[in-house]
Design goal:
Elements (H helix, E strand, L loop, with lengths): L1 E2 L15 E5 L3 H13 L3 E5 L2 H10 L4 E5 L7 H9 L6 E6 L3 H9 L4 E5 L1 E2 H15 L8 E4 L2 E4 L4 E4 L2 E3 L3 H12 L4 E3 H9 L7 H14 L9 E4 L3 E4 L4
Parallel strand pairs: 1-7, 2-3, 2-4, 4-5, 5-6
Antiparallel strand pairs: 8-9, 9-10, 10-11, 12-14, 13-14
Helix pairs in contact: 1-5, 2-3, 6-7, 6-8
């Protein structure tokens, strides 16, 4: 289930560390992932099933959750759904290779990233560090971005539309901020994977799902978006409403 591609000594120290909740019913997987994450400088807590994970997250919200989809009892998709009812904590899913439908559903529920099994524990640790780095404080040249009734506070990482605060995941916030910072420019899905996710290659449906979720939150009519436009044959473009 886990493949080892390098020695643990080769794992670089994370630039931004955090408290990570690892949810998997396989004791070996939990132990190996814990050791790699701790080597990268993260604090790690472990849960063996979905109910335990939700109790732990409610008692003390983690900075990131590594969540296996194939859990006994309450499966990973339901855990992700319940987390998203009250939290924007970043979630990295562990999925079986080839389970594209579950992967897309997980992303549509608000997961930020996924790693397919069998996976490299080193790669997972790097993905965790990458997500935490992106959702953590970032240097900005302005306090925020605005477009009509849509306002982003880049320092507090808050989004408001029509005076109402929106609940965005870390990756959704990063995608929206990137597009708003580059209005009028068309980006392919591969461009956005590289710029927002930091991936040189990957499943481009990840971008499609996140764009759809963003439209549901920032567009008055998601079926006829005016801010996040589709550029046919290319990708997406942000058009300021004003």
């Amino acid at each position: 289930m886990i493949c080892y591609t390098t020695s643990m000594e080769e794992l670089p120290k994370a630039e931004v560390t955090g408290r990570v909740l690892v949810v998997d019913d396989d004791l070996t997987v939990r132990d190996v992932v814990r050791r790699y994450l701790e080597l990268a400088g993260h604090r790690v807590e472990l849960a063996g099933d979905g109910e335990q994970a939700l109790r732990m997250a409610a008692a003390h919200e983690p900075d990131l959750v590594v969540l296996d989809l194939m859990l006994p009892g309450l499966d990973g998709l339901e855990v992700c759904r319940r987390l998203r009812e009250h939290s924007a904590v970043p979630v990295i899913m562990l999925t079986a290779r080839g389970d594209e439908e579950d992967r897309v559903l997980g992303l549509s529920l608000g997961a930020d990233d996924y790693v397919s099994k069998p996976f490299s524990a080193r790669e997972l640790a790097l993905r965790v560090s990458s997500v935490l780095r992106r959702v953590g404080p970032r240097p900005v040249t302005a306090a925020g971005l605005s477009d009509g009734s849509l306002r982003l506070d880049l320092t507090a990482r808050r989004v408001e539309r029509d005076g109402r605060e929106l609940t965005l995941t870390g990756r959704e916030f990063d995608l929206l901020a990137f597009l708003m910072e580059h209005p009028g420019r068309a980006y392919s899905r591969a461009d956005l994977l590289a710029e927002v996710w930091g991936w040189e290659f990957g499943d481009q449906s990840t971008v499609t799902v996140h764009v759809r979720r963003l439209r549901e939150k920032v567009e008055a009519d998601p079926a006829n978006p005016v801010r996040i436009a589709t550029v046919w044959g290319v990708g997406y473009r942000y058009d300021p409403s004003g």
